[in-house]
Design goal:
This protein is of the alpha/beta class and 525 residues long. The chain contains 20 helices and 17 strands. It folds into 3 domains: 84 residues; 146 residues, Reverse transcriptase/Diguanylate cyclase domain (Alpha-Beta Plaits), CATH 3.30.70; 211 residues, TIM Barrel, CATH 3.20.20. It is 55% helix and 17% strand. Bound molecules: ligand C2E and calcium ion (2 copies). The site of one calcium ion (CA) has 4 residues, from strand 13.
């Protein structure tokens, strides 16, 4: 029972008692036998009347209060319902429904040019899978705060998952939008400090114009999103919508659908490319590279489907399949050759952050009986940006006895001190640097990377070696291994196994470097 209805009940009881007393006193006044003085009786009546008046007033006030409270509760629940329907729960920003209704109203009302900007937060799913939703929600809240502080004169909204929207009501030209883009990137670049962690995010930005690109808000949002998906592929992280993007996206959606079935339908397979050692005469090392044989489109390169797998989260089951298959086939190859073979497997960021990745690796090694020294995992520089997250995972992986390589080295921006702390064993020089080696073989950056690696006591593998000039130069450098079409293109497991069947025990032990080169070529070509 709430206090108001209690008060109301009390007042009603008092009022009833008052009325009863008044009736009794009235009977006394009009009774002939009464012996009490009339003055006293009148005083009692006056007091009683006053008392009754007070009771009536308090009943009235309590009723009014109850009514007001009920009304307030109704309004609150209406507001709550409205908030839930039209605002994002975490960021408290207007949501997609609100924006569709509000902006569409504006568009019909005012046909002047506008731009719609949609951006997504990269790496949010990685933060979620590694740290949980508390951190993700806090990041989203802080992004919303930064947007409200820096773009207060614009309509800001929150779309699905990790996307935000800004409506720019201006006749400004492309340059002005580009500078807004730059401002947005700068605003989001500053680390997000949550509890003891400092988190970095990046954003991909897409723009679409009204009325050129689309005439309804829904279509305009879609166009800006298509542009945003394209922005993932450009270094500026920002693109303007073009009609071709819709077609690309449709194709991608179809591919995404097909990729879901690729593992079940046995459409994925691995190829292996050898890494030729320059300082030894016996090691067999190779990198596993995934391939997709699409039933209609034929062979699809990993560059086309790995990004889709990463976006959709399919990279987790695909990556696990790659790791299992590579370990199993390498073990079989070791048995066929009767000597150790090392395999390097590429990893994607979300794989590292998914569940207990070191445990997944350990189980696979146990099940396939491959010794940990035979496995190398390749990570890229950009994956190592969030050191706080990554360090414990990398150390756990290392404690299994496997080795780690930093792939595509030189493309990222790792500083020397940063590199020093990473528990990696090997640097793989990106093929762009190797490609730049001129006729004399000299490319200052290759020399620099090799000497840096040597100072840090890391192995160096040069990727994409295609010419004898490049090869000869690297042979004379401190480089430990080379990988590229010159030695062998990636080969299927079946080819390698077939080649191994003709190899005898005596072929495995090479006396000279050139014997070793032809041995490797024989296995992989
Ligand atoms: P990556 O890890 O840098 O792999 C080396 C790529 O260079 C391979 O391309 C290989 O075929 C190619 N390559 C090797 N030698 C030469 C050469 O002499 N010249 C030229 N032009 N290219 C050469 P591929 O197989 O198309 O793979 C592309 C990328 O896809 C890989 O680059 C890697 O980042 C990714 N990838 C491949 N397999 C996997 C996988 O299982 N998981 C993940 N997460 N990514 C993978
Ligand atoms: Ca690689
Ligand atoms: Ca590479």
């Amino acid at each position: 029972m709430n206090s108001y209805s209690y008060l109301n009940r009390k007042s009603v009881v008092s009022l009833s008692i008052g009325l009863c007393v008044l009736v009794l006193v009235s009977i006394l006044i009009f009774s002939k036998e009464n012996s009490i003085s009339n003055n006293i009786i009148f005083s009692i009546v006056i007091v009683l009347l006053l008392y009754l008046a007070i009771c009536i007033k308090s009943i009235y006030e309590a009723t009014l209060k109850t009514l007001r409270e009920t009304e307030q509760k109704l309004t609150d629940s209406e507001n709550e319902k409205y908030f839930m329907a039209y605002y994002d729960e975490v960021t408290k920003l207007p949501n997609e429904r609100y924006l569709l209704e509000k902006i569409s109203f504006n568009l019909t009302d005012d046909p002047s040019r506008k731009a719609l900007l949609v951006f997504e937060v990269d790496r949010l799913s990685a933060i979620k899978s590694s740290l949980g939703s508390f951190y993700t929600n806090r990041v989203l809240e802080l992004i919303a705060e930064r947007l409200q502080t820096n773009f207060s004169n614009m309509t800001i909204g929150k779309l699905q998952e990790d996307q935000f929207l800004i409506l720019i009501e201006s006749k400004n030209e492309k340059e002005a939008f580009l500078s807004l883009c730059k401002q947005l990137i700068e605003v989001m670049e500053k680390p997000f400090c949550i509890q003891h962690l400092s988190l970095n995010i990046t954003v991909n930005i897409g723009f679409a114009y009204y009325p050129e690109d689309a005439r309804t808000v829904e279509d305009l949002m879609k166009c800006a999103q298509f542009a945003m998906y394209e922005a993932r592929k450009v270094p500026e992280q920002c693109t303007f919508y073009e009609p071709s993007m819709s077609r690309v996206r449709e194709e991608q959606l179809k591919l995404e659908n097909d990729l879901y079935k690729a593992i079940q339908n046995n459409e994925l397979f691995l190829q292996y490319q050898p890494q030729l050692k320059l300082k030894t005469k016996h090691d067999i090392s190779m990198e596993a590279l995934v391939r997709w044989k699409h039933p209609e489109k034929g062979l699809i390169p990993p560059a086309d489907f790995i990004p889709i797998a990463e976006e959709t989260g399919l990279i987790v089951p695909i990556g696990k399949w790659v790791l299992e298959t590579a370990c199993r086939q390498t073990k079989e190859l070791q048995e066929a050759l009767g000597q150790p073979v090392t395999v390097a497997v590429n990893l994607s960021l979300s794989q590292l952050f998914h569940e207990n990745f070191p445990q997944v690796v350990s189980t696979i090694l146990h099940e396939t009986k491959l010794s940990p020294e035979s496995l190398q995992l390749e990570i890229t520089e950009t994956m190592t940006m969030d050191k706080n997250f990554l360090m414990p995972i990398l150390h756990n992986l290392k404690s299994l006895g496997i080795s780690l390589a930093l792939d595509d080295f030189g493309k990222g921006y790792s500083s020397l001190s940063y590199l020093k702390d990473l528990p990696v064993d090997c640097l793989k020089i990106d093929r762009d640097f190797v490609k730049n080696m001129n006729e004399n073989g000299h490319e200052p950056l290759v020399d620099l990377i090799i000497s840096m690696a040597k100072h840090l006591q890391l192995n160096v593998v040069a990727e994409g070696v295609e010419t004898m000039e490049q090869f000869n130069y690297l042979v004379n450098s401190e480089c430990d291994a080379v990988q590229g079409y010159l030695i062998s293109r990636p080969s299927s497991y079946e080819t390698i196994m077939k080649n191994c069947s003709g190899i005898g025990k005596e072929d495995v032990h090479c006396d000279t470097q050139s014997e070793y080169y032809s041995f490797i070529k024989r296995i992989f070509n």
